[in-house]
Amino acid sequence: MNTNRLIKTFKKLVSIDSLSFNERELCDFISSYLISLGFEIYEDSVGDKIGGNCGNLYCYLKGDNIYEPILFSAHIDTVKPGKGKKAIIHENKITSDGNTVLGADDISGIVAIIEAITTIKEKNIKHRTIELLFTVAEEVYCLGSRYFDYSIIKSKKAYILDLTGPTGTVACQSPTIISFTIKITGKAAHTSSCMLNTVHSISIISKAISKINVGAIDKETMLNIGTINGGISSNIIPENTTITGEIRSFKHTKAINQLNKTFKIFSKIAKENNAKIETKSQIEIESYKIPPNSEVLKDFKRACNAMNIQFNAGISFGGSDNNNFKKHGIDGIVLSCAMENTHSLDEYASIDELKKITQLLIELMTIQ
What we know:
By secondary structure, the protein is of the alpha+beta class. About 30% of the residues lie in helices and about 25% in strands. A hairpin with a 3-residue loop joins strand 4 and strand 5.
């Protein structure tokens, strides 16, 4: 592994704007780089489907042995504020200039994959057949991987680089996430007129929210109300109020039940107050759990042991592309990859951890 090249590539990729739905330039850079290393490249048309300027990028490199292929994945979009990112190199970490996120989520994962393969090719190390999938719009409920054609994938095991924490940490479980919208329609009037015939939509929303548990429902389930929008002026009874929220649960059926319970409560309050109600929901991703005796975990433990890295299996209450991989029959685990304080201006990448995850990927790509 070439540490100087690793950092230089990281700095280069950070400088490329790649907000969700606008990943074109970064996708082109990765494509050109991997073609030069001998990969076969295929970009799908998901961008057209989701309103982006780029599709998911699938890459294939035939191995030198008869062992089964293995899939590595990272997403190529970043969150806001992410325009004009700059990587500032410190003694043992990389930060932004403080005006944007750094984009280590998920530039760290991309760079580790690229450097691992570059090292393998340079040193002519025998490796397994390697499949790569760089996804778009992951930060928008894993939208890119939701529509990918998984019949292309040959691997049955995957490593997804998209987690905080020290190298060796993996997430083996992730929740179902359901987003929802509730709109209450009442009857408006000017506050100077008689209010007896009005229906105050914000008041109804407030009453309904007071009847549900917001936050942790139990150890497996949570409900959040994220936005409330209603009214047009301080002197007009608000006719329409809309809220958006989401439900997360490690058990898919519990998430569905919580959604139904929430809609039922809002519908009851709306009816009692002579208001109309409209509800919409979307299952964004479905929960999964990788068992401790799975082959993908065994291989990862073996690689950690070979490098004397401490293995730590845990859970994540966030979603990732792995939710969609598992739905399509691929056993994957999500790996920590040198990113910390993600989705904030304080985001940073540890150089030591970046080196460790790169070395660990080399081990996974060449493990027999």
